[in-house]
């Protein structure tokens, strides 16, 4: 049995065409069912539905053989023990710094002020600002980061941006791009050895169906 960990929503939806290329069709719509283990058209392949931030953990410890996870989640989790054969080029976005219009980020950086930064990505933000030599107080949040500068909780946020609509709707401005993000295929290293042929076939099929740049 091959177990693939996916999160509901955009990762699940955007992985479906890659699964189709591997001849795998999921037998249930996760938005309509409460099931956490979903069968597929292949008796030897199943999908487990986990929180986006739990995908690397499931694959690292062998709860799943493979998984699809954002680079943001992967870097924040640490990629120990995970083989990363493919950039799937799905769920594309960027990790950026954003502030309110009345906050002068450039001069705060220039003057060496302490900046209060709210984010779900504490590790990535810490590394980014440390490399720049900027002093920050990091505030860990689990969602709705955009609210932090609007309520005075923070001066800035580090969050994902795609269309920019969420920032715009909350009158925030992107002031620095930290990195481009896309979803990655991750594989448990022991599973890759023990189930080499079927896992290789899935990797190759996914590779053939990656959207072009
Ligand atoms: P959790 O449930 O663990 O809090 P989440 O709500 O962030 O996770 P999703 O919103 O489904 O989960 O995001 C999954 C992945 O999709 C992210 O890790 C990121 O790589 C990517 N992503 C997030 N937001 C966007 C977006 N607006 N556009 C494109 N890709 C995105
Ligand atoms: C993500 C991210 C931003 C938004 C950016 O949230 O946290 O809020 O997308 O996308 P945009 O630039 O296209 O507006 P998501 O939609 O995943 O909601 P979530 O916070 O519940 O995960």
Q: If you had to describe this structure to a student in words, what would you say it looks like?
A:
The protein has 213 residues and is an alpha/beta fold. The protein has 2 domains: 2-91 and 182-209, 3-Layer(aba) Sandwich (D-Maltodextrin-Binding Protein, domain 2); 93-181, Periplasmic binding protein-like II (D-Maltodextrin-Binding Protein, domain 2), CATH 3.40.190. The protein contains 9 helices and 11 strands. The strands form 2 sheets. Strands 2-3-1-4-11-5 form a 6-stranded mixed β-sheet. 33% of the residues are buried. Bound molecules: adenosine-5'-triphosphate (ATP) and 1-O-pyrophosphono-5-O-phosphono-alpha-D-ribofuranose.
Helix content: 25-40%
Give the CATH class of the largest domain: Alpha Beta
The CATH superfamily of the largest domain turns out to be Periplasmic binding protein-like II
- Biggest beta sheet summary: 6 strands, mixed
Bound molecules: adenosine-5'-triphosphate, 1-O-pyrophosphono-5-O-phosphono-alpha-D-ribofuranose
Low-confidence stretches: none
* Rounded Rg: 19 Å
Structural class: alpha/beta
Q: Which H/E pattern describes the elements? A: EHEEHEHEEHEHEHEHEEHH
End-to-end Cα distance, whole Å, is 33 Å
Number of DSSP E strands? 11
The CATH topology name of the largest domain reads D-Maltodextrin-Binding Protein, domain 2
What would you call the shape? elongated
Total helical segments? 9
CATH architecture of the largest domain: 3-Layer(aba) Sandwich
Strand order of the largest sheet: 2-3-1-4-11-5
Number of domains: 2
């Amino acid at each position: 049995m091959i177990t693939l960990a996916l999160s509901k929503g955009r990762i699940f939806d955007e992985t479906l065409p890659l699964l189709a290329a591997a001849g795998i069709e999921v037998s249930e719509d996760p938005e309509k069912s409460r099931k956490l283990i979903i069968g597929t058209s292949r008796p030897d392949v199943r999908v487990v539905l986990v929180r986006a931030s739990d995908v690397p953990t499931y694959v690292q410890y062998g709860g799943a053989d493979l998984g699809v996870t954002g680079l943001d989640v992967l870097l924040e989790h640490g990629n120990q023990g995970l083989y990363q054969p493919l950039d799937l080029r799905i769920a594309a976005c960027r990790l950026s710094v954003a502030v309110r219009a009345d906050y002068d980020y450039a001069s705060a950086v220039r003057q060496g002020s302490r900046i209060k930064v709210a984010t779900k990505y504490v590790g990535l933000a810490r590394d980014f600002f440390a490399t720049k030599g900027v002093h920050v107080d990091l505030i860990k949040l689990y969602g709705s980061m955009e609210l932090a500068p609007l309520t005075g909780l923070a001066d800035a946020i580090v969050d994902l941006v795609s269309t920019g609509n969420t920032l715009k709707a909350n009158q925030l401005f992107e002031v620095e791009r930290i990195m481009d993000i896309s979803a990655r295929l991750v594989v448990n290293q022991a599973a890759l050895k023990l189930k080499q042929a079927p896992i290789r076939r899935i990797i190759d099929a996914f590779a053939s169906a990656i959207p072009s740049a």
